[in-house]
Design a protein that fits this description.
The structure holds two protein chains of two kinds. Chain A is an alpha/beta fold. Helices cover 36% and strands 30% of the residues of chain A. Classes of the chains: A alpha/beta, B alpha+beta.
Chain lengths: 301, 581
């Protein structure tokens, strides 16, 4: 488990992170979302032991991470602009990673390089940005560390590659309990992959919740009432977080369980009624609007 | 045991990885040393006689030549390349997130650099010695010279590497690291030279009292005697390396990319460089445009250098007017120093020591071999008549003060340096012009046994006597007649009789002789030693010496041509206007 507690970091007097407390649970994919400058990269660089916190603590499995090789051997950090040695090929980089991470799986790396259609002996410098990111992810996965920290790594991948990487993570999670921590400036990038999401804004953590918990208490429904007055009756029975109307069609986000909602609507005469799945975006909108934030401006692009 | 094995294994792995990254540097180091120590040596030795080849091999493989330059440049390169990742965010993210401690990184780069330099240099030397051997020039002396040079060059390299590492730690970009390394390596001698240039404006400044001897300049120290150079460069290396390590620990990784991350370092460097630039500009323009021109040039140079530095610091040309406070500090300090020196604000040139605080004194004339004369006088001249020396200084200071610097030496004077050995252990000195009117005082000083003992080396002649025993040593008489044949005598047989005769004549030697009489010739002691030739002036009044020369068939009359006769004028305490034989 990676834990940060009251983490603070400033750059030339400007606060980049302000008392951030976050837990990355083992075996889950945790997403960090926020706009540019929200503090995602800073948080990841602090977690990776690249930066030293001004205040607060960061531990990896209970061990402080700063300048501690043992704690750092638990993860690989893939920055938003991964570095490769001059003139190095994927093979050279694999050799280097193997020297640092004894459990590095060379055979798997060879397989994945082929699967991702990368050339083992071609100079990395000639790779496209997306190919470099793929290579960085493959190196990180094959290092067989418990955690991988990925800073906006998905943002440069095409949909096919993104799906392939997600599938790779899913396998690694089920086989050996890999715990990825992924940052992105777009909620949609993380929509179908994360178990837990933290929302960073201006150096503070606005929200950090399991998606299942969020989904359990929030429902999206659309309906057409026979009598428009029934809309008010619903408001009295359920906490309606939003109610958008298109003609007579209501699209409502409400707090409550599926059973509660079904029970209430069974007593109301509707022309049309349907419960829909909530997107991550809608979950965040619902959760943060109450706190006075317009999350659309923060993270949705 | 497990832990030790693991640590060693990690160390080996780290070294392997660093070596892989520095392949180009390793190739460069080996090629350079082999090229110069073996390749060029081979070309150099071709066609030389064996003795010349031995000398050439010594020169090429020893310290203070091309190997020293390679070692210097190589050390700077190794330090900057070794820690270059600290100035790049992408590389910082890569390296600092890996399971390697910061200490291991630091030590790893140092050891790796040492291994590259030592192995490549050693390879060059060994191949060089093999080349020398093929020319039959690989004697024990050559091997000794090569390995002594190897040792002293490595110590120089260690100091240079440490200073360059410190430069990297104080800066945040590669280009500025290089500039900082040059600044740190050259700053102390540059500062010393600039301050001395300024102090030279003080009329009686001798260039010694305020001279800050370079301690942290490996290159300047390298050329001093080994007993000084080795401990100083080791100390310099230790201090710079400890400082570099502390800055490395203190340094924030987010500072990568900033030219000079630490505000204090920015400010100090800026003020110091502005100070230097202003002094250089002021000294230059003060001579041609007077003090006002000098000050204006100092202000302009301070603004220009300050602006350039701010533009570099901020990587933004629009920031040239930032931090004017430190520009003012550097500039004002320089102007104050220059005004202080130019107008002698504290009365430096009126100083006369309290007799009670002086142990003894010695005087050196600036016309001869000043370094040798000063060293000899410092050892053997102990003038105890301080009242007379003080009186001489008083007259000299007045004469010197009243002579504007730009006018050069005042007429009818001779320049001397008076050194006081103070009872508190310090040595104070002044450089003054002595007028001909101080003849009585000078006679009193130069006529004394104390003066002669510290002026003529025949009084303490162990080196001369030893050197004259060598086969190639000789004694000759030179009357400066270009057409005359010099007569050489076997040195060992006649030296004692020469010494007896000359010392007898010196009993009557004083300022009247030295300052107002023309030499009729010189006895040349050609000694194969460090001092080389030793000249003993012969005056017409030196009857015992002249008799010695005649007895040994060495004497020659004065040359017929006036130009030859005048060439004998040595300038020691002489007043050309009043010279006669």
């Amino acid at each position: 488990m990676i834990e940060t507690k009251d983490l603070c970091k400033s750059f030339d007097g400007a606060k980049a992170l302000d008392k951030v407390t976050l837990t990355v649970s083992d075996g889950e994919i945790t997403g960090l979302v926020g706009t540019n400058g929200a503090g995602k990269s800073t948080l990841l660089r602090l977690m990776a032991g690249v930066l030293k916190p001004d205040a607060g603590t960061i531990t990896v499995d209970g061990q402080p991470v700063w300048d501690d090789p043992k704690a750092k051997s638990q993860f690989v950090f893939v920055s938003d602009d991964p570095y490769f040695f001059n003139n190095a090929t994927p093979k050279d980089m694999a050799d280097y990673y193997r020297s640092l991470y004894p459990a590095f799986d060379k055979a798997q790396f060879d397989r994945l390089i082929k699967a991702f259609d990368l050339e083992m002996t071609r100079r990395v410098a000639t790779f496209s940005k997306g190919m470099k990111r793929q290579l960085a992810i493959l190196l990180a996965v094959c290092a067989k560390t418990k955690y991988v920290l990925l800073d906006e790594t998905f943002d440069g991948l095409d949909p096919v590659m993104r799906a392939a990487v997600k599938s790779l993570f899913a396998n690694e999670m089920s086989e050996r309990g890999l715990t990825p921590l992924i940052s992105s400036h777009s909620l949609r990038e993380l929509e179908d992959i994360c178990d837990h999401v933290g929302l960073l804004h201006k150096g503070g953590l606005l929200l950090s919740e399991d998606l299942d918990d969020m989904k359990t208490g929030l429902l999206k429904l659309q309906c057409v009432f026979s009598d428009e007055n029934d809309a008010q009756n619903v408001s009295k029975s359920l906490k309606v977080l939003s109610d958008e109307r298109q003609g007579r069609l209501h699209v409502m986000t409400v707090r409550g369980t599926r059973e509660q909602v079904t029970e209430i609507f069974s007593h109301i005469d509707t022309v049309f009624f349907e419960i829909l799945p909530l997107t991550l975006e809608e979950l965040f909108i619902a959760e943060t609007e109450g706190a006075g934030y317009d999350v659309r401006k923060l993270i949705i692009q | 045991m497990m832990s030790e094995n693991s640590s060693f294994s990690n160390f080996v792995t780290l070294q392997k990885n660093i070596f892989k990254r520095r392949k180009w540097l390793i190739v460069l180091a080996f090629v350079t040393f082999i090229l110069f120590d073996a390749g060029f040596l081979s070309l150099y030795l071709t066609g030389l006689t064996r003795s010349s080849a031995i000398d050439a091999a010594k020169e090429m493989l020893g310290a203070g030549n091309i190997n020293t330059v390679i070692v210097l440049v190589g050390s700077v390169l190794l330090a900057i390349e070794g820690f270059h990742w600290l100035s790049n965010k992408q590389k910082i993210d890569f390296y600092e997130s890996q399971p390697i401690s910061r200490n291991a990184h630091f030590v790893g780069v140092i050891i790796n650099s040492a291994v590259i330099l030592v192995t490549s240099y050693l390879t060059g030397i060994v191949l060089g010695l093999i080349v020398a051997a093929s020319y039959k020039a690989c004697t024990g002396a050559v091997v000794k010279t090569a390995f002594t040079g190897f040792g002293s060059n490595l110590i120089l390299s260690l100091a240079t590497f440490s200073v360059s590492t410190l430069a990297v730690m104080l800066t945040g970009t590669l280009a500025v690291s290089v500039i900082a390394a040059v600044v740190l390596l050259a700053f102390e001698p540059a500062f010393d030279a600039c301050v001395n240039t300024c102090l030279m404006m003080l009329p009686t400044y001798n260039g010694r009292d305020f001279t800050t001897h370079c301690i942290f300049s490996p290159v300047e120290t390298f050329y001093r005697p080994a007993w000084y150079a080795i401990p100083h460069n080791l100390l310099c290396a230790a201090i710079a390396l400890v400082a570099a390590y502390l800055f490395y620990r203190y340094r924030k990784n987010e500072d990568a990319g900033k030219t000079v991350p630490l505000k204090a370092v920015r400010a100090i460097t800026k003020a110091a460089l502005i100070f230097l630039a202003a002094i250089i500009a002021g000294s230059f323009f003060e001579q041609s445009a007077g003090m006002a021109g000098g000050i204006i040039s100092m202000i302009i140079s301070a603004l220009v250098v300050g602006g350039v530095m701010e533009a570099i610091y901020n990587a933004d040309i629009r920031k040239v007017f930032k931090g004017l406070g430190f520009t003012a500090i550097g500039g004002v300090c320089a102007i104050v120093l220059m005004v202080f020196c130019r107008y002698d604000v504290v009365g430096y040139s009126r100083w006369i020591p309290d007799k009670a605080g002086v142990k003894s004194a010695y005087i050196v004339n600036t016309s001869g071999n000043e370094i040798e004369d000063t060293t000899y006088a410092a050892s053997y001249m102990k003038l105890t008549d301080i009242d007379t020396v003080n009186h001489l200084l008083e007259i000299g200071e007045e004469t010197t003060r009243n002579t504007p610097v730009e006018d050069g030496s005042p007429a009818n004077t001779c320049e001397i340096k008076i050194y006081y050995r103070m009872k508190n252990g310090k040595t104070m000195s002044r450089k003054v012009y002595i007028p001909a009117t101080a003849r009585d005082l000078m006679n009193k000083v130069m006529g004394s046994e104390e003066f002669k003992e510290g002026f003529f080396r025949l009084y303490h002649d162990d080196d001369i006597a030893k050197g004259l025993k060598r086969a190639s040593a000789s004694i000759a008489y030179d009357n400066a007649d270009a057409d005359a044949t010099r007569l050489y005598a076997n040195s060992t047989d006649i030296y004692q009789s020469l010494k007896e005769a000359y010392l007898k004549d010196l009993e009557h030697y004083d300022f009247d002789t030295a300052g107002f009489k023309m030499e009729i010739g010189q006895i040349v002691l050609d000694i194969p030693s460090e001092n080389g030739e030793e000249y003993l002036p012969v005056y017409a009044s030196f009857s015992n010496t002249i008799q010695f020369l005649k007895d040994n068939h060495m004497y020659m009359d004065l040359p017929k041509k006036e130009v030859d006769r005048n060439s004998l004028y040595s300038g020691f305490y002489t007043f050309p206007e009043k010279i006669s034989y």
